[in-house]
Every structure is written in C-alpha cells, then in structure tokens.
Specification:
Elements (H helix, E strand, L loop, with lengths): L4 H4 L2 E3 L3 H20 L12 E8 H4 L6 H9 L9 H14 L1 E2 L7 E2 L2 H4 E4 L9 E8 L5 E11 L2 E4 H5 L17 H11 L3 H10 L4 H24 L14 H14 L7 H17 L3 E3 L9 H12 L8 H18 L4 H4 L5 H15 L4 H13 L17 H21 L8 H14 L20
Parallel strand pairs: 2-5
Antiparallel strand pairs: 1-9, 2-6, 3-4, 6-7, 7-8
Helix pairs in contact: 2-4, 9-14, 10-12, 11-12, 12-13, 12-18, 13-16, 13-18, 14-16, 16-17, 16-18, 17-18, 17-19
Length: 463
C-alpha cells in the first residue's frame, strides 16, 4: 500500500486525529457500507437505527477528544476535510431534539447519542487501543450490519479485517523508489544522486500529476499557515473545563512590541518558534481546521518550524516549501511504517516526537543539508523525545499538548542546526531510533498512552 504525502498531511478538524478525525471517517465509511449493502446479516430488514460503542483509549479520553461528537456528526454525513463548523452546530441541535440523523441516500435513522453511543471502559478490542464498533439495526431491533474499526493515529482508519492482514505502509514496489527504511532511502538517494524530497516527489508522481501534487502541497501549507494566523489573532478561554486561557495572541503581541524596540535577547527566537506552534494547537484544541502533521495533537510542530524558516531565516524562499513538506513526509512515512505515530500505541513520542523528527529533516534539507545530515537531523529530534508519555489532563488536547508542540518545534530547529554542524556521520541511525521508539511504546504502561489514567492527568488535583 502506497503511503502518500496526503495520507501523512490530511486536512481535518480538531482536537484529535485519532479520536476525532478517525472516528468521523469510520462513521462515514460505515454509511458507505450501508449504501452499498455490504456486510448485511441474512434475514435482516431495512436499516432504521444506528449505534456505536467506543473502546480502549477512545472510551477513556473520548469525551475530552470529542469522539462522541465526531461519531454523531459522521453518522449525519460530515467528513473532516469538508467540515463546516456552523452547519455542524445546527445539525447537532437537530439531532439532540429529534434523536435522528439523516445521511444522504439513507433517509432518517434513529440515533440518540445519549443512549446509542456507549463508552465501554472495560472492553479493549484486540487489534489496537483505539477501537470502535459501529452497528445498524432493522425495525425489529435485529442487527443489520456491524463493523469494527480501529483509528490507528493520524486519521488512519482500518477495519478489523484490514488490521488482520495489514499491508506494510511504505513506498510500494512499483514506485520508482520503494524505500521501507531510512537505510534504503539513503542508499537510493546516493545511487540516484537525488535528494530525499526528489525521491518522495518521484513516488508521488507515480500516482498523480505534477499539477495535482503542487496544488495539494500549496493547499496543505495554506491551511497550516492560516491556522497559525487565526491562532495568533484569537484569545479567550478554551472549552473543556480546564479554563485554560489562550496565550498565543498575547505572546505574539509582546514579541512584536519587543521587536520594535530592538531589545530582545537572542534566545527570544525560541519564543517566536513556540508561539507559532501554540497558535496552531490552541486552534486544534478549539476544534478548528488543522492539518495532521502527522497527528492533530502534534499539528503545530511542522507549521511552526516552516514559519520560523520563512519569517526569520535570512534568504529564506517560499520555493523551498514543497521540499520541506516532501522531506518531512518521507520521514513520517518511515516512522508510521516501522513504529507508530499514535499516542494510544506508543505515547507522545509517536506524536510530537515524530513531528519533531519530520520538521528537523525538512528544515535541514532546505537549509542545504546533505541527505546524511537530513537523516541525522531526524534521528536527533526523535531520539530526544524517546519515552515521552501521552497523559492529557482531563482527556483534553490542551495540557501538556499545546505547550509541548512549542518545545517540539524548538527541538526540531536545534536538531537541524546540530546536524548541519556535522558531516552526517553519527553513532545512532534513524532506523535504530525508530525501532527503539517502537519497543519503548510496546513496553510502556497503558496508563501513559492516551488514557488519562496516569502521569499529569492524575496529578493535577483541581482537575
């Protein structure tokens, strides 16, 4: 199965790619099953009602991650890439009033979230921590269709059958450069004389036209950049119960004032990097439009790093945006293939850690790094996120998630800089680091993998 850059960078809605985007996608796919008549139990009558049960991490942190809302709106026909906030509010109010959804081509179906959506805290489904079972019933209450879905991180969704025979998510053999590991990627780059971005571009063009690729990349960056700008202009209190005040606007205003006085110390650049990331993740926490990069919880790292380059690096060129994104996607694909980008599988090392590695590689590449230096930059950034837990307070993608993106972006810039100071030769390879992350995630206690059962989530007394 080919893993495209647009699989890594999906335009979606906050606050979580695995807990919001994925469940909404799963609901949409289930509706398609019903429309196509797939999986119908023999003897069942026409569909009149829907139901859902959430399991594992989707149950434990589903309320804080708006998983229940995502499933409900998915059943109503909404999809992440075209999500309309104003329309969703109207539809939600109607569902609350009528206890029914009306997806296209299926008519009005009984579905009242209060009784038809179950948070099952006791049953963890076997294939992944983020499991959900979607069901349809006939007028007699008999089961019509049932499917188990897993939201595997970054908005990726697979059925139970797909999980059982999961294809390797990597560059497919028929693509010009079918690398599955960083070592293979480096070998192909050296042999061909191409950059990592060039390899990824050639593989993408095997599946789409060049105008489609360029337009898609421009749209991805446009959404990322617009998200930064919205976050820098918006203040107030984030919903969810933590009473967390948005900080990006105030920090940005302060930084602009200091810039005018020309009195800022050199380390203030870290505040600029952080504020871009914080802006994105405050928007994500508020349910705004973001790009999975590679997840919603880590959505601020890449945009912040690229915005830092464009706004603060002398000689920066917008012509390098594509190479940044292509390089980052190549690294993200390797991590997704060989370990995980899911907080519910491996903790936050798989989310912010992966994002930091991707951003470091992209920045190193457009600053003139060699392919070995680019691989080194990714390894440095990922290595220094190893073991990071995912323990969102009150199950919300707010604390420590928002601030953590700022530090992930700072680490990305530092990793790229360190790699550029070297010659690309280093002790620990990216492949070694990715495998270490996989093993660490496997051994990590489930309390620290997006369940809010341990760590900061249970040590903030007022929550």
């Amino acid at each position: 199965m080919f893993l495209s850059i647009f699989d890594i960078f999906k335009i979606g809605v906050g606050p979580s790619s695995s807990h919001t985007v994925g469940p909404m996608v799963a609901a949409a796919r289930f509706l398609d099953m019903l429309r196509d008549g797939r999986g119908v139990i023999p003897g069942a009558g026409p569909v009149v009602a829907l139901g859902c049960s959430l399991h594992g991490s989707l149950a434990f942190t589903g309320k804080g991650h708006a998983t229940d809302r995502a499933v409900t709106l998915g059943f109503a026909g909404f999809e992440p890439a075209t999500f309309d906030v104003a329309k969703a509010a109207i539809v939600e109010a109607d569902i609350e009033k009528t206890g029914m959804v009306s997806p296209d081509s299926l008519g009005a179906l009984n579905y009242a979230p209060a009784k038809d959506l179950i948070f099952d805290y006791d049953t963890v489904l076997p294939a992944h921590a983020n499991g959900m079972i979607l069901s349809a019933y006939d007028a007699a209450g008999n089961l019509h269709t049932r499917e188990t879905f897993y939201s595997t991180g970054g908005g990726f969704v697979m059925t139970a059958a797909q999980m059982a025979g999961e294809d390797v998510l990597a560059e497919e053999p028929s693509a010009p450069y079918p690398f599955k590991t960083a070592d293979e990627m480096l070998e192909m780059a050296h042999a061909s004389g191409k950059s990592i971005a060039d390899l990824k571009r050639e593989n993408e063009l095997h599946h789409m036209t060049e105008p489609a690729l360029r337009d898609g990349l421009a749209k991805v960056w446009g959404v990322m950049n617009a998200c930064i700008d919205r976050g820098l202009e918006t203040d107030g209190i984030l919903e969810g119960g933590l009473k967390l005040r948005r900080r990006a606007k105030g920090i940005h205003t302060s930084l602009l004032a200091e810039r005018g006085l020309n009195q800022s110390p050199p380390h203030t650049i870290n505040d600029w990097i952080s504020v871009y990331a914080i802006a994105v993740n405050e928007e994500n926490a508020a349910g705004g439009q973001v790009v999975t990069a590679p997840t919603n919880g880590a959505a601020g790292v890449l945009p912040a790093t690229l915005r830092y380059y464009l706004d603060h690096v002398p000689g920066a060129s917008r012509d390098n945006i594509e190479d940044f994104l292509l390089t980052a996607a190549a690294i993200g694909g390797l991590i997704k293939t060989n370990a995980s980008i899911s907080g519910a599988e491996v903790g936050c090392q798989g989310e912010v850690g992966s994002a930091s590695a991707m951003a470091a590689a992209g920045l190193c590449a457009i600053l003139g790094g060699t392919i070995n230096q680019v691989e080194n930059a990714a390894e440095i950034a990922l290595e220094h996120h190893l073991g990071m837990t995912c323990d969102p307070v009150k199950g919300l993608v707010q604390a420590p998630c928002i601030e953590r993106n700022g530090l992930g972006a700072i680490k990305a810039v530092s990793a790229a800089s360190l790699a550029l100071r070297g010659d690309g030769v280093h002790l620990i390879s990216l492949d070694n680091c990715v495998e270490t992350m996989r093993q660490t995630g496997r051994d990590m206690n489930h309390k620290y993998k997006e369940t809010s059962l341990g760590g900061l989530a249970v040590n903030v007394p007022e929550c």
